[in-house]
Amino acid sequence: MSEHEPSIAGAVARPPAPPLPPEPEVEPASRWLPSLVWLIPLLAALIGAALVARSVLDQGPTVTVSFRSAEGLEPGKTKVKYKDVEIGLVRAIKLGEDLSKVLVTIDMSKEAKRFTAQDTRFWVVRPRVGASGVSGLGTLLSGAYIGVDAGKSAERDDAFTGLENAPPVAGDQKGKLFKLHGDSLGSVDIGSPLFYRRVQVGQVVSFALDKAGNGVSMEVFVQSPYEQFVGQNSRWWHASGVDVRLDSNGFKLNTQSLAAMVVGGIAFESQNGQRPDAVAAAGTTFPLAADQASAMREPDGAPITTVFYFDQSLRGLSAGATVDFRGIVLGEVRSVGVEYDNLKKSFRMPVTVDLYPGRLGKRFQQTLENEYRKEGHDVLGRMVSRGMRAQLRTGNLLTSQLYIALDFFPKAPPVKLDFNQYPMEVPTVPNSLDELQTQIASIVKKLDQVPYAEIAANLNATVKSADAMIKRLDGQVVPEMQKTLDAAKQTFSTAEQVLQKDSPLQSDVRQALQQLTQTLQSLNGLSDYLERHPEALLRGKKGDQK
Hints:
Elements: H1 8-13, H2 39-58, E1 59-67, E2 79-82, E3 85-95, E4 102-109, E5 121-125, E6 128-130, E7 133-135, H3 139-142, E8 145-149, E9 159-161, E10 175-182, E11 193-196, E12 199-209, E13 216-223, E14 235-238, E15 242-247, E16 250-255, H4 258-263, E17 266-269, E18 285-289, H5 292-296, E19 304-310, E20 322-325, E21 328-336, E22 339-341, E23 346-355, H6 362-372, H7 376-385, E24 388-396, E25 401-408, E26 424-426, H8 432-448, H9 452-474, H10 482-498, H11 504-532, H12 536-539
Parallel strand pairs: 1-9, 2-8, 10-18, 11-17, 14-18, 19-26, 20-25
Antiparallel strand pairs: 1-4, 2-3, 3-4, 5-8, 6-7, 10-13, 11-12, 12-13, 14-17, 15-16, 19-23, 20-21, 21-23, 22-23, 24-25
Helix pairs in contact: 9-10
């Protein structure tokens, strides 16, 4: 038996193995509980979803505005403001397809939904100097921003065309818009003020040239409560700058205000100067006159275009000069020209004028309509047949301005008008003072042609010859003739002194000619005064009456 093999006796002596412990009973859990670590990302996801939902709910409309230039605009920085309240932000800027404009995308706030109305206006606020003043100075520090004016249209849109300048009238400003039509723009610009009795009550909104090019149409805004002073018969006129006139009526200076002198303006007033009975409706069109006198004048009616031919100088007569009929301005000069007459082989001066027969009064018009029932040209022909002629007269001695006077000259030769001619020619008569001045000028010219120097030289030679002869005869004559010779010598000496260039006689002649010229000027003034005041021959001057 080997020593490694167990013996049978040892195997019998081993104690028995202990019993196994009982297996534990496992009960399944009723539910699964997550770990607390997963609560943090879950909470973050919930917060993000809430922020996204809030952002979507608070997001306003997105609009695109086109401008000519993006100067001063920056994406993410440039704000959109309404009455200095931020209502949007520029998100992106890009060029248009035709490269003529830039497209600015704007994210508006939730409260700015009403700014998507179709007539909403956008513009870039920058420092500007215009007729209405200086604006946008605050942008020098804060930078440019986009201004907006809410529209009133019920239709919505997301694409707009931006304005280059801020609109002169805000959408919520109360008042009325009116239209004006004039011959020219004058000194008026957008933002120029409107005046009523020199009080600023509005401004010019826009202007445009007529399609035919024969005038300018303007749109003006009269703010509340001054629109009640705009009546159906209101008269409008240019009140721009300084109105300075120097014509046959004298010197006139008229200004509206300092603002109108700088930026121009327009004024209006009722026809009778009182508050109008009927207020004009918005959009009413009014004519715009050049000045207050033209605006307040009664309607002239259709003018009669005529032409006057003068054979004298027209120096001092210009376009716009008055055509006077016994103190009443019956028309004005349209143009002054010159023509060559082939029949007379000379030049004549045509003056084209516009005559307004309606300025002779309503009674004259009623007489024409009731009795004669004639047209304007027929009436003018009747007046010419009775001796009415045109005559040039001096209106102002200081400025030498001329005007045309219409009056009746019974002794004028008869003239038959050609009614088929346009413009119709009205005969003229020369001015009597002009004829007198022409005659005097002819006399003075002839006097200037007298060879005074040659006459003086000849007389000088004659005196010297006589003096030499007297010296030769001095020793040959009898003593009784000595006194006679001395007297003759003295006479010739005096004659020599008189004929010298600086002699008193020639000085007296010059003074006499000057006094004659002054006398003629005085006669000119006296004749003009008597033409305007014939009663002065009986009553004397008004200043001399007591």
